[in-house]
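I had to read the description of the data format several times before I understood it. In essence, backbone conformation is discretised, so a fold becomes a row of integers matching the chain in length. I therefore recommend that a typical entry be quoted early in the introduction. For illustration, here is how one protein appears when written out as sequence plus structure tokens.

***
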Amino acid sequence: MATLGRVGARHPAEEVWPPRSTRGPQHPLDRRHPRRHSRGPRVIYLDTSAAAKALIDEDGSDVVRKAFADGIPFVSSKLLAVELHAVADRRAIDRDAAQELLDRVALVSLGDDTLERAIDIHCGLRTLDALHLATALELGDTITSILTFDREFAAVAARLGIPASDQL
């Protein structure tokens, strides 16, 4: 099961993740819980392809920047921190800007269940994308959709029941 790990200041989406000890078997983070329309706050899973657009001027950057400006709560795997800092290094972007962005995202640790789920998906995605998708699946109906600019990732997510798009 993915567990919440925090980088930076308190995130508004944190209240949707009660501690493991308070979760019953039908909690949305339980893998047996069916995906349904979330009645809680709108929380978007942020893929690296989308997060990078907040730092780089290119098609789609305005969508991501507006979402952050509007205060939409985002969640992602801790892989996002590794990937976003790598993007910053490759593109000569200030690492502080990358960290400021990460501070606004609730980051989820990868547990053994998430790793096993990435193996079990049999989706044909690249390794890190499969791990992001497994994390999103572990979060269940806690997330309402995935923000991504990766068409292959979006197609696999949709096939597995998670709405994914480059629009909000």
Remarks:
- The chain is about 40% helix and 10% strand.
- The first strand starts at residue 3 and ends at 5.
- Strands lie at 3-5, 44-46, 74-77, 105-109, 145-147, 164-165.
- The chain has one domain: 39-165.
